[in-house]
């Protein structure tokens, strides 16, 4: 997650956006590599093993963020106890996953960017008109092609890679890149997305992870410590915890954070 990575990502975004903006038919030519003209379908989408691999990729990605989800949920149940993992890491992993694979993808672009998927455009036996990546005026009504949610989820694995020990981090980045490319390749092979859908998904996920890592870990003005994050979550969770304890017949008092009054009855 250094400046070199950011420069490479921005350069790729510029080149891909420009080339496929000027020559949008390249998206069709790449999608055609997976299309069987005789059968009039994308054959791999009917393959059980390929479908399992697609599902497994999402299980792996969400499996990597599951410890963060569990740690935060447990913290809200028992804010009087330390978190089960690094508070910074938990917030970093969950926030980047929600942003890249959720908010930016499914709740923003895919809901309002009407680009049809390859499987439904006229060139591949469908009835909708193909539009380039930059044009949101396609005829897709919902759950559209731009950009790929599964691609964004797969490339989100840059986030746990960024938390790997320094000696293993380059290998972790390579693994995340291979994982993202393989998963995105499956989405193209199924006729679910064009190349630009998955490429831009990967670049968006990388940029989200890069920025979040810089904010939480690198930049002095915004850098957080585990103690700061733990204290913030404690303060946020404490009113609900205190209300529950009062309902059970005891008052635990104010939250125990730096400089605060210690809770009662603990």
Describe this structure in words.
- The chain has helices at 3-22, 25-32, 48-77, 87-103, 105-112, 149-155, 158-162, 169-189, 195-218, 226-247.
- The chain has 266 residues and is mainly alpha-helical.
- It has one domain (3-238).
- α3 crosses α4 (87-103), α3 (48-77) packs across α10 (226-247) and α4 (87-103) runs parallel beside α5.
- The protein is elongated, with a radius of gyration of 22 Å.
- Mean pLDDT is 92; it is low at 259-266.
- It comes from Bradyrhizobium jicamae.
Q: How are the elements arranged and paired?
A:
Blueprint: H1 3-22, H2 25-32, H3 48-77, H4 87-103, H5 105-112, H6 149-155, H7 158-162, H8 169-189, H9 195-218, H10 226-247
Helix pairs in contact: 1-9, 3-4, 3-8, 3-10, 4-5, 4-6, 4-9, 4-10, 6-8, 6-9, 8-9
Protein name: Phosphatase PAP2 family protein
Transmembrane segments: 56-77, 89-109, 198-220
Keywords: Membrane, Transmembrane, Transmembrane helix
């Amino acid at each position: 997650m250094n400046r070199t990575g950011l420069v490479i990502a921005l350069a790729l975004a510029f080149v891909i956006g420009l080339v496929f903006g000027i020559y949008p038919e390249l998206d069709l030519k790449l999608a055609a590599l997976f299309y069987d003209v005789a059968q009039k379908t994308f054959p791999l989408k009917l393959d059980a093993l390929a479908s399992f691999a697609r599902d497994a990729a999402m299980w792996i990605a969400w499996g990597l963020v599951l410890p963060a989800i569990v740690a935060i949920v447990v913290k809200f149940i028992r804010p009087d106890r330390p978190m089960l993992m690094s508070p910074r890491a938990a917030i970093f992993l969950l926030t980047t996953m929600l942003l890249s694979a959720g908010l930016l993808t499914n709740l923003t672009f895919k809901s309002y960017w009407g680009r049809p998927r390859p499987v439904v455009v006229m060139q591949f036996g469908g009835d909708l008109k193909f539009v380039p990546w930059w044009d949101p005026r396609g005829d897709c009504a919902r759950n559209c092609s731009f950009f790929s949610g599964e691609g964004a989820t797969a490339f989100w694995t840059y986030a746990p890679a960024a938390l790997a020990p320094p000696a293993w981090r380059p290998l972790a980045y390579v693994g995340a890149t291979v994982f993202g490319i393989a998963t995105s390749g499956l989405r193209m092979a199924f006729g679910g997305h064009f190349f630009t859908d998955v490429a831009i998904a990967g670049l968006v996920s990388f940029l989200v992870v890069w920025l979040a890592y810089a904010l939480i870990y690198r930049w002095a003005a915004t850098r957080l410590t585990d103690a700061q994050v733990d204290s913030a979550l404690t303060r946020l969770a404490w009113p609900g915890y205190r209300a529950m304890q009062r309902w059970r017949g005891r008052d635990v008092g104010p939250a125990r954070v730096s400089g605060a009054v210690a809770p009662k009855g603990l």
